[in-house]
Design the sequence.
């Protein structure tokens, strides 16, 4: 409680570990809230949670509540999962795919992710998982970062075609991207401009944070 109060003045780090993928993983009290960070990026809770909440709002909570199965690629501390379950009261199934087993231990210890009854965690590379899965989903959230880097496969047409194939009709993809350079800005513009499939509609959401852009893809029928 004391740490929480003091964290309004200065962030207080309560746990830190090395990670080969994310350089370091830190759990910190910041502005009265427990957040999970990598060396240079906010991974879970804090601004990341606000960004993804905006994306879910943009899709429409009323469309999310009746969904049956949501896939989350990139789990970390699980803040978008908490938004779905605690705030939106989504009761369907959630499958979360995370490459780093250490981060799931932290999510369970500090953020009680293992208390979410409708959540199944799969430790796997998201790319491998989407190739293997035979399930179809109503919403697929793509939130994959290795510190501030987004793996190249995320922007390859093969991956996005596969993700689109895994979507039920009237389903949604919510893709969180980071833009730190002009070339990444161009990458996003090209991605949206060149995505063409009459069965889908693609749009970006006005940014909450200058460095994050959310892309929404909707399967029309
Ligand atoms: C920004 S965090 C995810 C935050 C989470 N969606 C939330 O709402 O709190 C990014 C996560 O992607 C994971 N990651 C990176 N590469 C991955 C991959 N190829 N497959 C699965 N997860 C990956 C990282 O380990 C990290 O936990």
Sequence:
């Amino acid at each position: 409680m004391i740490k929480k109060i003091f964290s309004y003045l200065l962030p207080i780090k309560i746990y830190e570990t090395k990670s080969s993928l994310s350089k370091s993983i830190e759990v910190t009290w910041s502005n009265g809230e427990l957040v999970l960070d990598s060396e240079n990026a906010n991974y879970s809770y804090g601004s990341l949670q606000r960004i993804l909440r905006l994306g879910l709002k943009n899709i429409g909570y009323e469309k999310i509540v009746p969904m049956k199965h949501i896939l989350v690629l990139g789990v970390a501390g699980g803040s978008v999962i908490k938004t779905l379950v605690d705030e939106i009261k989504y009761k369907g199934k959630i499958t979360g795919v995370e490459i780093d087993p250490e981060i799931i231990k932290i999510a369970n210890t500090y953020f009680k992710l293992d208390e979410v009854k409708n959540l199944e965690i799969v430790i796997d590379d998201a790319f491998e998982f989407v190739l293997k899965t035979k399930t179809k989903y109503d919403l697929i959230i793509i939130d994959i970062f290795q510190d501030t880097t987004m793996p190249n496969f995320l922007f390859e047409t093969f991956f996005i075609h596969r993700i689109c194939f895994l979507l039920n009709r009237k389903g949604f993809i919510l893709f969180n991207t980071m833009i730190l350079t002009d070339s990444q800005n161009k990458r996003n513009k090209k991605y949206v401009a060149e995505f063409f499939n009459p069965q889908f509609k693609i749009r970006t959401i006005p940014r909450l944070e200058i460095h994050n852009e959310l892309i929404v893809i909707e399967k029309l029928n």
Summary: Residues 138 and 171 are 5 Å apart (CA to CA). The mean pLDDT is 95.
